[in-house]
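Cross-check.
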Amino acid sequence: MLAPSTNSIQELREQFLAQLSSHFREREPLGLYDPINYILQIGGKRIRPVLALLSGKIFGDDDLSQTMSVALAVEVFHNFTLLHDDIMDDSPIRRGQPTVHERWDVNTGILSGDLMLIQAYQHLASCPNVAAFPAMLAAFNRVATGVCEGQQYDVDFESRDDVTIEEYLQMIELKTAVLLGGALEIGALAAGASQQDADHLYAFGRLTGLAFQLQDDLLDTFGESAATGKLTGNDIIRNKKTFLFLHALDLIDQDERIELTRLFTTSPINPANKIARVTAIMEKAGIPAAVAELRDKYQAEAYVHLNAIGGSGQWKKVLGLLTESLLGRES
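Predicted model, tokenized:
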């Protein structure tokens, strides 16, 4: 068998997409099932299912027979959360396409999302490693609960002006990071890993998720649109209180604190001047360097957990390559 290489990530993604596509079929009632097929086919990086498959490879699931069901479960669950989040946020676009509730309606989005959650559990239950299922189910339930808690914190924070850095980090851990960790943990359990190794992989994914979200926040404000594919300053336009905003409040003087807080209550038709002023205040306070330092701290801690597990060193290296690519770095 060929040793895993930098092409292995794409190969795993293609294997997953082939398996996912085999589940698409016309089924009645179309108004329930078509929206599910739609959201699962409109793109996405498929990071979570690839993480599940990678953890299986690390622990010897060479043909992916044990972990493919986990990959399907975490991807269907992830898209279920996106479908319902879009309704809560009244978002018109997802991955460049109309959201489900825009293309159909809100009731359809709610009901199709509910069925996706059921389907996620069905995929999980189809894992051939029956002995590991109780531990897998417990992990999945813990992660799913955390994601819902994170979404509620995110909603709560929109109407609060006293959010702390610790609360924000807890929110992004629950909303984003725990599912990355869960994909790795549950995939490892399905492949027969010990609970200790699975716990280390969960911690690796959780810390990587925190680093990734901090990087994403940083690029939103200071990245180049041509490189990120996103509108630079979107968090500033939306008055989103990210780590950058919260940490800046701790570092700037009183006058700038009043000004920054005021700017995050405005929604000008042309936001260019607002974005320029906010980024100037943050740059003066050294926010880009501070965010990068915390991001790298989380990732360094993550690698301690990755190095602590057994399994294939070559596939662990591939997992490291994927991690560095998520952070926009070459390894």
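Residues 154 and 171 are 7 Å apart (CA to CA). The beta strands are 93-94, 97-98. Passed to J.P. for a second look.
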